[in-house]
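Practice record 12: protein with norvaline.
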Amino acid sequence: MKKDLLSVNDLSKKEILDVISLAEKVKKDPRKYYLKLKNKVLLDIFEKPSLRTRLSFEVAMYQLGGHTIYYDLSGSPLGKGKESIEDTARVVSRYVDVIMARLYSQDDLLKLAKHSSIPVISGLTDYEHPCQILGDLLTIKEKLKKLNNIKIAYFGDAKNNVTHSLIFACSKLGIKLSIACPKEMQPLSSVLGNSKNVEVTQEVSKAIKNANIVYTDSWMSYQIPKSQHVKRVKILMKYQVNSSLMEKAPKSLFMHCLPAMRGEEVTSGVIDSKRSIVFDQAHNRLFIQKAILLKLVK
Ligand code: CP
Ligand code: NVA
């Protein structure tokens, strides 16, 4: 049966660790994998913008010997509402070997996967960003040399795809996660419901205590209208990652999925500091995408 990657919550601890371990192997000896996906075709469907996800998947596929087709939904019958997701899925499944889709709605992604006979990978929805978090775990393992007995502190907008995937991953792996966010921007209760080792607080000083990793994300995720910018900045400023916050966990490393808005969720002083690992984090998207493709494409 085909396997999809739609949510971190669908993965077991072993599956998470296995994909990270394959990414490590691919990174160490890329040539060994050069032709593993020869003649395979990936379709990238985008409803929202992207730099990292689009490029890392395209480069990954190219370096594995396959090919990628980029498909912007704004110019398609699906995006214009003239063709259903179900029909699109059935047609596409007959041309290509795997789909990576960045959509607004997780329900649309689930529908796409349900009616596709080929693997479907989430390239982010409003609800989750699984490839990001798998890549981040690879980065954390590289930097801290372990994934156990660690604490991640997340600051800012937590009603957010990256936070949701982080919650699922930390629960599965036994990583302590402390989330500091405004009351109105807490993770969805459906995500928090069965989580383990996760605390949500409004107190920045509580979350930062003993953190190994400090993580934040944009306050203006792709789907949030510009008209909310001023209001959100006002509410979220208390959760900005700046040097005085980083001083409270002096050995911690800084992570951000990017794109970052300097001066909002993080200051330039932090993102450009030696403790920032954001570009290694972005680089590792390439290796985790390769591992995901190798695991799913048969
Ligand atoms: N982190 C991430 O997914 O970046 P893009 O939106 O540029 O793909
Ligand atoms: N939460 C962000 C992640 C970007 C990679 C967004 O959805 O825009």
